[in-house]
Amino acid sequence: MAGEQDWVWWSAAAVVAVVVLVGLWVWFKGRPFAAGEVFRASRWSSGNHLFPTQILITPTSVVQYTPRWIGRREETIHMAHIASVKIETGVLLSDVLIETSGGSDPIVCHGHHKGDANRMKTLIEQNQTGYYRSAPPRPVGGDSSGR
Fold this sequence. Notes:
The protein has about 150 residues and is an alpha+beta fold. It contains two helices and seven strands; from the N terminus they run H-E-E-E-E-E-E-E-H. The chain has a single domain (about 30-135), classed as Pleckstrin-homology domain (PH domain)/Phosphotyrosine-binding domain (PTB) (PH-domain like). The chain has helices spanning about 1-30, 115-135, and strands at about 35-40, 55, 60-65, 70-80, 80-90, 95-100, 105-115. It has a four-stranded antiparallel beta sheet with strand order 1-2-3-4, covered by helices on one side. It has a three-stranded antiparallel beta sheet with strand order 5-6-7, covered by helices on one side. A hairpin with a 4-residue loop joins strand 3 (about 60-65) and strand 4 (about 70-80). The chain starts with a helix and ends in a 13-residue tail after the last helix.
């Protein structure tokens, strides 16, 4: 009888250990992936329950980071290639669409809080303004060497 009870306790301990390890892995993967302005989608939104998508906005680029069980998916768009930022607002959460000027698929981020979505758009607009103000003027017609 004691051997049977030991087996049940060891099984229960193994299940608890696995649950704790999976919980720690999900928590580790859900932490902000970089320093700076990182916006994380709500876990209550579609596709973000375990590993919420994160958006990093820097003065020169926008990075979409989606952790996975093993590895990650990361997409970067330079500020010069962002054509528009759209916010689709729902009852509780908003979707952010960042479209590129190159015609490729936009970055689509589901499930951000409304304040975060507005802050993302404001930051992108500010960074684009700063980028284009600091960029040296380009010559019209191509090569500036005079050949």
